Fold:
Amino acid sequence: MAKYVYFFGSGKAEGRADMKDLLGGKGANLAEMTNIGLPVPAGFTITTEVCTYYYAHNKTYPPELKTEVQEAMRKTETAMGAKFGDPKNPLLVSCRSGARVSMPGMMDTVLNIGLNEATLRGLIDKTGNERFAWDSYRRFVQMYGDVVLGLKPQSKHEIDPFEHIMDELKHAKKVRLDTELTTDDLKELVRRFKKAVKERTGKDFPEDAYEQMWGAIGAVFGSWMNDRAIVYRRQYGFPHEWGTAANICSMVFGNMGDDCCTGVAFTRDPATGEKVFYGEYLINAQGEDVVAGIRTPKKIAELQKDMPQVYKQLDEIRNILEKHYRDVQDIEFTVQKGKLWMLQTRNGKRTGFAAVRFAVDMVQEGLISKEEALSASRIPPDDLNQLLQPIFDPEAKRKAVAEGKLLAKGINAGPGAATGRIKFHAEDAETWVHKHRGTADGHVILVRRETSPEDIRGMQAADGILTAFGGASSHAALVSRQMGKVCIVGCGTLNIDYAKGIVTVGNQVLKDGDWISIDGFTGEVIAGQLATKPSEVVQVLIDKTLKPEQSKVYQQFAELMKWADQYRKLGIRTNADLPGQASQAVAFGAGGIGLCRTEHMFFDHIEPMREMILAQTPEARKQALEKLLPFQRQDFEGLFKAMNGLPVTIRTLDPPLHEFLPHDAKGQQEVAKKLGVEAQVIADRVKALHEFNPMLGFRGCRLGIVYPEITQMQCRAIFEAACNVHKAGVKVEPEIMIPLVGFLPELKEQAKIVHEAAKTVFAEKGVSVPYLVGTMIELPRACAVADQIGKEAQFFSFGTNDLTQTTLGMSRDDYGSFIRYYMEHDIVTRDPFQTIDTDGVGGLMRMGVEKGRSARPDLKIGICGEHGGDPDTVKFCHKIGLNYVSCSPFRVPIARLAAAQAALQK
Ligand code: ADP
Ligand code: MG
Ligand code: MG
Structure:
């Protein structure tokens, strides 16, 4: 029979750290901390299987659960020397959610369960502290009312009903902080809270301790399916089937007086990665207060003065935990009357900067191996992006500051530079970005007093997050760190008025829609739009304006990349059309060009291109092509030189020809004049080239087959350039790639042209260079007949943009209108144009690989679609045995790391 409840307490636990799937992360680690002898208040974990059962059985529990819970409660009572629901010696508990992966603040927790009029008396007698008892009761009614009974704000403008009552009372009593409220005030609050509950729900606030506990358990399981938790799982690709555990944990109190506190800390700095104890605490407070940002907390270093003994013990635990878990930990603790209790530990969320630094430092400290350092759980490859993102141009910033635009300084919680329009509400941020995405206007800074889990969508949409309250462990800081967003918190001088839609600092007023810039490295908030400049890594590698020894960030990045290269099996290439892009990619570690799109070159020489397209006869077309030849040759020479011997894959002309033509009357007249023909001739030709569905029209190899002279010219340019560069002493090896092949004869005809061009040019130049002829695999038919195509092709490259379009029958230019709906309703889990649809498109790729290699066992196969820089796709490509992935230059480091992770995955 399944065991549904796992006890922890008195130095022994039934669970372990590796039981996260069953106990959730929080439960598993409470058990582990108990087992390694750390002070954890006793309690028990109700497994995730109960949650799954709960949803599968119409929100009911397995029949055995009740007895198991009662047994575990008995043990808890023995361990803590108090009894749940007992008026004389009451035990209070918390009921805490906890899924197998941490979802900060997405689900619910209720503290101080077990309080009612009778146990309250007992608590007062036991502690002799009436104010504390009422404070706990006040908190309990508020939290239970919110989480279990659902008394929440109903719109973005309404404030929390309990906060509202509290603000009224504080105002009447002329006090600012909760701690200034008297016992009588707290009694009054409880009375008003309960009245609000009765009014809104029509029921009395529950008195029975067990009824309270089961209510909380139901709410915790219920919170697994709340909107924000669902959104969060969708964003990180966690399945809805996992479920959460519910942890019942004996209460310990940080709100019993000034010898009590509650805090959260990281064993190292999660923003920069520096090896310093990093955290904050609040004297005389309970858990939620720190995260909620109600009072701005103290820095952990100050605890050394406030409670030296506790600090020493905590610092020791910091070391024990890092050694035990071999990773940076994010901990929660509470001190009750000078005694330290551990309430949670988990691997700390970190910025990309910190992730790299933790990993490299810990290898150097001998704590972990290089293999461990490279793991995806420590460094999600996408997070490397942060190290490549721009920073503010110091000149521009200095100027802005001199002009008095520096508004304020807060806590730098998420590094990076962000500039955008002010939005005060998550909803508004989301709507705005959705409407202006991809334009210069599509950037938003979410400016709030504090954020809460309801704001997650808006935070996702924003470039940066700025809050007036809260510390480095507040919700805003935590979530931005994970999303890799620029973030500043606790910027106390900001005076935000939601109703008016303005933020005031001193005498400066900014309103909704105004530009603001935030520097997440320093915490500076600046009015207006500020110019950015490249990151340190880019300055060292690309711009060469910084020396490697001047940048610690660069050095650690380089070290990590070196390790990645030692383990990865996949080659990494880049998609680049210009010598500059190509050299960038090489600096980032690319080993070749996987896709050079020749049409970009034609846009630079649009006139002869148009002449070529408008030509009525092969002769006229040839003449125009001859004008293009020198330009193409020059472009290829530049590219070959930049790549200095690395392989270069060049794709012959691919897009439909009408893309090069002017579509308005004025443009057509201009071309007509230049070409010396009637405007009508041009208009007619444009009309003739019009297609209803150009992506499935006259494009790809179809162009080179109907107009062979185009392929002839392109190949001549490639080979002439190759011979010239070869003569100059640079190694070259062009790989000529034919697009959109679906039938073997298409490839054969084009390959014949390539070989003829090579032969002619080599003879003329008196030298020859090695070259390959291959094809893109980007049509389902090509995958199905890959064994035929593989006989002719010397390499394959999956063009997954087109392969996704043609396999899913979804146009990548038109899927925007419905894909969001699809993702929000779990019809598709990922955007198929960003991450390979492994079952569908991936299935065809597997077929293509298998069939291709059946014809040619050593067939070289790569991928060159946008997907090539997506970490999950890179891992998939490794799994199906590709030789390389090709991606845009700035994705190259990410692909290198992902490839190493794929190779290290068991
Ligand atoms: P979250 O996952 O949102 O952090 P938690 O379950 O960890 O939620 O609890 C919220 C806050 O309440 C935390 O600060 C935690 O330390 C505190 N807390 C939870 N249980 C107890 C307890 N038994 N005694 C004292 N504080 C608690
Ligand atoms: Mg917690
Ligand atoms: Mg294509």
Observations:
- The two ends are 32 Å apart (CA to CA).
- The mean pLDDT is 93.
- DSSP finds 37 helices and 34 strands in the chain.
